[in-house]
Design brief:
By secondary structure, this protein is an alpha/beta fold. The chain has twelve helices and eight strands. It has two domains: 193 residues, Rossmann fold, CATH 3.40.50; 155 residues, 3-Layer(aba) Sandwich (Rossmann fold), CATH 3.40.50. The strands form two sheets. A four-stranded parallel sheet has the order 2-1-3-4, sandwiched between helices. The chain has a four-stranded parallel sheet with strand order 6-5-7-8, with helices on both faces. Helix 3 packs across helix 12, helix 6 packs across helix 8 and helix 9 runs parallel beside helix 11.
């Protein structure tokens, strides 16, 4: 197991009471839970998505609330959803994940019900928290459907938990902790290893040399201001912050594994690319764009491209439209063979890994015994102060971390 590069020293007594909405095991503010904790239920937290044409604009208004974006602009994004009948597959995927988690928990003798709530569409998180409380389940362990550190992929979910508790009037009655970020847990990484290996074997069987194949690990672009503030500030992980560093570390592990199986793959280059940019042109976002890179690859002697949705758990809209439609079209225009690998979805290794993380937190497993495949892990149980700041919004109340 790789050596961890981030600090795990005990936090001072001044941190007590600085972790709002937390269970007793997390109130000390220690980076990793050191006291076993009983939980009543698991709270699966999702992004949400429309389930019909009439839902698309109301959903997008929820997503962009407070930004003053007119409906005319939203309709530009709405066309992606309307192309698929106004239905995002994300809700169905989360329903499948909830069912798979429940089955795996039960098979291991962990008698915890799994509730599911979304940020932007039904079933809403507030309703799920209320439902849990009504059933007497007041000590919840949150599981966000995002593996990496950034405002939108971690802190905003923690803010969602806090908002749900406050809005339902359950703050002080219900507590919510959160499973650590799992970008480098083997259960998350293994499905990607399998997918990339399958794609490479297909191109290799067609007679392509390893140097003629390029692997592009794709993830959602975010503003540079958010990226630079992702993760704790004292880690000094570069201008892309923890968000970029985590993706790069996982991509490296995947390629190192595949090259160890077939040394000739040392000539297969790989890189991290970004997609789904939505901000104004004047605002710097993480680059390069996946389609821009695809257009350049023929000039570098590349004949085939493997597109890996490394930043995504399931095949939701950014995968179906931005990769399966736009990126594949860019590959065709560039004269490249192309394959898009699967997301983890409900892959047995992924589901098992999530339950491992739940067990790890219940048991307060020692850091040395926590599974991780990069030197960046295991990530924190309790997020550090100011972690994943959103400079446009400032700090809102958030569960599962030290204030602010």
């Amino acid at each position: 197991m790789p050596e961890s590069r981030h600090p795990t020293a005990a936090i001072s007594s001044d941190a007590v009471d600085d972790v709002p909405f937390a269970s007793p095991a997390s109130q000390s503010g220690a980076p990793h839970a050191i006291q076993p904790q009983h939980y009543d239920a698991i709270m699966l937290a999702g992004f949400g998505g429309p389930e019909g044409q009439e839902d698309v604009l109301p959903f997008l208004r929820n997503v962009t609330a407070g930004r003053g974006i007119p409906d005319e602009r939203l309709e530009e994004v709405a066309t992606h959803y309307r192309h698929f009948g106004g239905v995002s597959p994300i809700n169905e995927h989360n329903a499948q994940l909830r069912k798979a988690l429940q089955k795996e928990l039960t098979s291991r003798g962990i008698e915890l019900p799994v509730y599911w709530g979304n940020r932007n569409w039904s079933p809403y998180l507030e309703d799920a928290v209320q439902q849990a409380a009504d059933a007497g389940h007041v000590r919840l362990l949150g599981l966000a459907t995002s593996a990496y550190s950034s405002y939108s992929s971690c802190r905003q979910y923690r803010e969602d938990f806090a908002r749900a508790l406050v809005d339902t009037g359950l703050a002080g009655t219900v507590t919510i902790d959160k499973v650590r970020q799992y970008f480098d847990h083997p259960g998350f990484v293994t499905p990607f290893i399998e997918g990339v290996d399958t794609a490479l074997r297909s191109f290799e069987a067609q007679g392509l040399a390893p140097s003629e194949i390029r692997v592009l690990f794709a993830t959602h672009s975010i503003p540079m201001t958010d990226a630079s503030r992702s993760g704790p500030a004292d880690l000094e992980l570069g201008e892309g912050g923890a968000y970029a560093a985590q993706h790069m570390a996982v991509g490296g592990v995947i390629m190192d594994h595949l090259r160890s199986e077939l040394p000739a793959r040392a000539d297969t280059a790989w890189e991290l690319v970004y997609q789904s940019r939505s901000g104004p042109a004047s605002q710097p976002w993480l680059e390069p764009d996946v389609c821009d890179r695809i257009a350049q690859l023929p000039h570098e002697g590349v004949k085939a491209v493997v597109i890996v949705p490394l930043g995504f758990l399931s095949d939701h809209m950014e995968v179906l439209w931005d990769l399966d439609e736009e990126a594949m079209e860019a590959a065709a225009e560039a004269g490249l063979l192309a394959a898009r690998t699967p997301t983890p979805g409900v892959h047995p290794e992924f589901v098992s890994g999530l339950v491992d993380l739940i067990s790890e937190r219940i048991e307060a497993r020692a850091v040395s015994e926590r599974e991780h495949v990069t030197p960046l892990g295991p990530w924190y149980d309790v997020c550090r102060p100011g972690c994943c700041e959103n400079v446009r919004r400032g700090f809102s109340p958030a569960a599962a971390g030290l204030q602010p």
